[in-house]
Amino acid sequence: MNNGWITLHRKIEKHWLWDSKPFSRGQAWIDILLECNHSERKGLFDGKLITTKRGQSSNSKKTWAHRWGWSISATRHFITLLENDEMISTHNARVTTVLSVLNYDTYQAQQPSEESQKNLTKISDESHADTNNKVKKAKNLKNDKNLYRRVQHLTISLDELQKLKNAGYVEADIIDVLDAMENSSKLKNYKSGYLTALNWLKIRQKNKPVTAERPTLLQKYTCGECGTPYKESFEDYMKHGGLCPQHQQQETGK
Q: Do 78 and 59 belong to one domain?
């Protein structure tokens, strides 16, 4: 699509994307359009008064090079390319180089009314804020290596998963509960994925019969010989015959 045009606010220069250097040639060209005056202005350069008109910039080649993260020679070569393509013209004003964008109105129409400008600014700000929020959420999710699962607006971390396992719950039951939470319409006011899952697991266990494979939370599993509380997961408890490490060694040495 190469027809029509868009309104690009100069606030883009404050965006984090604009901080990445060196600029591409396309980005450098957009930067020229952003830097050029939209109306005539005057300024002092080394004590000399310079007047730049609409569509002109009084930035020196050194200033452009600094903005784009380029060398002076690369900047000079690029400006020459734009002149050869009749996109810009330049003239020496002794203390600086005045750059003029040819057919400037093709890229930048006359300024809209004050009310229209306010509306455009509001739309731009809202769009900018919405984009930032989406990028932030996506970045946080991508970078959260400790995330086990997201359930609606709640999350369960790998550490919290391990805490549930240490409480005697097997992962199959945990997954079943998380699936049930995912399909629930009652989680809107819940704030902690871990505490919600733990509460649902407790309720689930109360409604299930106690078996050797699935003890309830209230059924504390201990060493069958000395009664020492078993601190590992229930799967390890069953694998080691319900014995603490000391009695496991004794049993092995028999």
A: yes
